[in-house]
Automatic annotation (TrEMBL):
Superkingdom: Eukaryota
Keywords of this entry: Flavoprotein, FMN, Oxidoreductase, Pyrimidine biosynthesis
Any single Pfam family the record assigns to this protein: DHO_dh
Domain Dihydroorotate dehydrogenase catalytic per the UniProt entry, residue ranges: 26-324
The organism's taxonomic lineage, starting at the top: Eukaryota, Fungi, Dikarya, Basidiomycota, Agaricomycotina
Cofactor(s) recorded in Swiss-Prot or TrEMBL: FMN
Protein name according to UniProt: Dihydroorotate oxidase
Length: 325
């Protein structure tokens, strides 16, 4: 069991916010799976994302890797709240939901948080059953680069979360980060998040309770002949996904994701800010085997997440990952 502020994650394995956590059936499978300790929804927006045939995924034939051109969920926040209300109304279960959210402006994000907080307040038990994760790192949104790559762009969103946490310190807030490649990027993120630490009843606290490391690696290119069914794609395009470029995931980014988990884990542990030392890491990126789970734990992740294997195997993926080495 891993405690992240007000939610318990047991067992310490989750799905990542991804296309395979989009609808009612997918969420139901994840919620009722005995190998997941929490369910993270696909990233939703206030009114839903306009999805079309250009938003898709391709799996690679030579490794358990994927390239996707997905944006966010076509289902709006209100739909996820309705589904979660139904799940939480079933027989008592301690499994929490983490609602992955994002928006194009801090003002709209604030509206989303207000709706979630109203929902959490409608049942006292739900305060420890519902958390939020800010997806600050999707690389596939045209004309909207991930704010986590440009911290001045991230801060207005963090201000919204800081205000929500100031109003309700039971709110568990996570931050889904992109893959970083330069040492100064890690230090800059730590410094940025630490600037939000405040003293509460004599104890330093920070709005952010956990990091998810990492999201997909953007601007990646896979050709159709690198996929198991190249003939189905080459008639229309030489690329694995229609836009050509997309977010790379799975085994292809495992080493990079491990490096991100390790770098953040080390910097958090060494921080002079006690509140930063409390931040938990969810390790994601190329988690396709029990060995990969073990590597994430060794790098510093207390919880491990997966998406590509979920896309390939369905919820059976978590049984596979839970097998003893």
């Amino acid at each position: 069991m891993v405690l992240i502020r007000s939610i318990n994650v047991s067992p310490s394995m989750v799905n990542c916010s991804c296309a395979w956590a989009s609808d009612y059936q997918q969420l139901s499978g994840l919620y009722h799976c005995p190998y997941t300790g929490a369910v993270i929804t696909r990233t939703t927006t206030l009114d839903g994302f306009e999805e079309d045939e250009s938003h898709t995924v391709a799996f690679m034939k030579d490794s358990l890797s994927s390239l996707n051109s997905y944006g966010y969920s076509p289902h709006p926040l209100r739909q996820y709240l309705a589904w979660i209300r139904e799940f939480l109304g079933e027989r008592p279960s301690p499994k929490p939901f983490i609602i992955s959210i994002t928006e194009s402006s801090a003002e709209r994000l604030s509206e989303m948080l207000a709706a979630i907080q109203q929902f959490r307040a409608s049942n006292s038990i739900w305060r420890s059953r519902i958390a939020v994760e800010f997806n600050s790192s999707c690389p596939n949104i045209k004309d909207h680069p991930p704010p986590s790559y440009h911290l001045p762009s991230l801060k207005p969103y963090l201000d919204v979360f800081a205000k929500a946490f100031q109003d309700d310190s039971t709110l568990t807030i996570g931050l889904k980060l992109p893959p970083y490649t330069i040492a100064t990027q890690f230090r800059d993120v730590i410094e940025c998040i630490s600037s939000y630490t405040r003293i509460d009843s004599g104890n330093p606290t920070n709005p952010i309770a956990y990091f998810t490391c990492t999201n997909t690696l953007g601007n990646s290119l896979v050709f159709a002949d690198q996929t198991p069914t190249p003939d189905a794609k080459t008639d229309m395009s030489p690329f694995a996904v229609p836009p050509g470029l997309g977010g790379l995931a799975g085994e292809a980014i495992h080493a990079l994701s491990l490096g991100n988990v390790y770098s953040f884990s080390r910097l958090l542990a060494e921080s002079d800010d006690p509140a930063m030392r409390e931040i938990v890491i969810i390790g994601a990126g190329g988690v396709t085997s029990p060995e990969a789970v073990q590597r994430m734990n060794r790098a510093g992740a207390k919880i491990v997440g997966c998406a590509t294997l979920l896309g390939k195997e369905g919820v059976k993926a978590f049984e596979i990952l839970s097998r003893k080495l």
